């Protein structure tokens, strides 16, 4: 009898602790997550809540490539490249080419836009309930954490995993029409985000003659194509002769990635606590 009473008392304590977890600790973690993710959203220079003022422009100097063939300055405004000023030294004759974006053109960085949208969706999930709402079950909290973590993982993946593109896709992306003077037909460029870096890749091409004895093997999709890669555009076949990759660190992207990591850890810690409480009371 005494053992049964002790067991009942212990169970009552566990159930009271679980109730406190659902009513107090969960809400504390949710408030912490909201604060962190609102900071993350602000880092994208596009505040949440529809109170967007003018977005500041930031200039970034491209780091020199290993052969110092490409130099330039990129101007970033939120999720758009609003200007690119690029100097390219041609290896064949050391001719220096200079290109800038046309004044009527901007290049949207879809990775930044998508990451920001996922962050704001996570914030919506955290705030989309009445201020006095009380969670009734642990599974309800677990379901919310899974949904928030899914959005945060997608946000992080958009910055850490650039989309692979074939060379014909790069050629038809619209970037070739952004510049003044127009890019020569033997130059391709691609901009993308990789982690906390804004990257520019310049491909110099060699047109293959129709009677070329080279075995033509079109290359597949990749983030970065190597010299020797081949592709066909229109009726012309090309081979990549030189590749130059330059990049610059964007500090606020680094901040955002840190916020994503901290938030995912908080979500996982809360999930572990709730699961342990469910198991203890079960």
Describe this structure in words.
42% of the residues lie in helices and 25% in strands. It is built from 5 helices and 10 strands, in the order H-E-E-E-E-E-H-H-H-E-E-E-E-E-H. Helix 1 (2-43) packs antiparallel against helix 5. It has one domain. It is α+β, with helices and mostly antiparallel strands. The chain has helices at 2-43, 110-127, 138-160, 167-171, 251-281; strands at 58-61, 70-77, 80-89, 96-101, 107-108, 179-180, 187-194, 197-208, 230-233, 236-249. The two termini are 21 Å apart. The strands form 2 sheets. Strands 1, 2, 3, 4, 5 and 6 form a 6-stranded antiparallel sheet that branches. Strands 7-8-10-9 form a 4-stranded antiparallel sheet. Its main location: cytoplasm. It holds the Pfam family Rogdi_lz. This is Protein rogdi homolog.
């Amino acid at each position: 009898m005494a053992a049964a009473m002790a067991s009942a008392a212990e169970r009552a304590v566990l159930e009271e602790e679980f109730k406190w977890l659902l009513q107090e600790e969960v809400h504390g973690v949710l408030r912490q997550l909201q604060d962190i993710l609102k900071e993350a959203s602000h880092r994208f220079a596009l505040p949440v809540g529809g109170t967007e003022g003018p977005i500041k422009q930031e200039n970034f100097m491209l780091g020199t490539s290993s052969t110092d063939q490409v130099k330039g300055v990129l101007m970033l405004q939120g999720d758009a490249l609003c200007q690119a000023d690029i100097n390219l030294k041609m290896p064949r004759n050391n001719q220096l080419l200079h290109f800038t974006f046309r004044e009527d053109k901007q290049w949207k960085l879809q990775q930044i836009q998508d990451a920001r949208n996922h962050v704001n969706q996570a914030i919506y999930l955290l705030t989309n309930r009445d201020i006095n709402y009380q969670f009734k079950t642990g599974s309800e909290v677990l379901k919310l954490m899974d949904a928030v973590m899914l959005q945060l993982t997608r946000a992080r993946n958009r910055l850490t995993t650039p989309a692979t593109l074939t060379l014909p896709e790069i050629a038809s992306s619209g970037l070739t029409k952004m510049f003044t003077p127009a890019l020569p037909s033997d130059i391709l460029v691609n901009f993308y985000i990789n982690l906390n870096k804004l990257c520019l890749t310049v491909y110099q091409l060699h047109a293959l003659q129709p009677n070329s004895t080279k075995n033509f093997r079109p290359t597949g999709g990749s983030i970065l194509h190597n010299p020797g890669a081949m592709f066909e555009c229109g009726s012309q076949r090309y081979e990549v002769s030189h590749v130059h990759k330059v990049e610059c660190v964007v500090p606020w992207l680094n901040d955002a990635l840190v916020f994503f990591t901290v938030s995912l850890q908080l979500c996982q810690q809360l999930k572990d606590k709730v699961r342990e409480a469910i198991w203890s009371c079960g």
